[in-house]
Design a protein that fits this description.
Blueprint: H1 10-22, H2 27-56
Helix pairs in contact: 1-2
């Protein structure tokens, strides 16, 4: 298992220590759980975005077409 060193200010260490103690685990396990949760949430959010994009494909009216070029003097000034 890999080891990581973190540089955290004293106030944060106290908060981490208290939170880990409340869950009866080490600070290391608590931080690892937080990181794992954050990474899972990010992956889930990314997957949800891709699914939503996939569901939106073809949502426009099939008769809709993008014009090849809009003339500069189209009269909509």
């Amino acid at each position: 298992m890999a080891q990581i060193s973190l540089y955290i200010d004293d106030a944060m260490v106290e908060r981490l220590s208290a939170a880990a103690e409340n869950l009866n685990c080490s600070i290391s396990k608590y931080v690892a759980a937080l990181v794992s949760e954050k990474l899972s949430n990010n992956e889930s959010e990314e997957a949800n975005k891709k699914l939503m994009l996939k569901q939106l494909c073809g949502a426009l009216d099939p008769a809709f077409s993008i014009p090849s070029e809009i003339p500069w003097n189209s009269g909509y000034a």
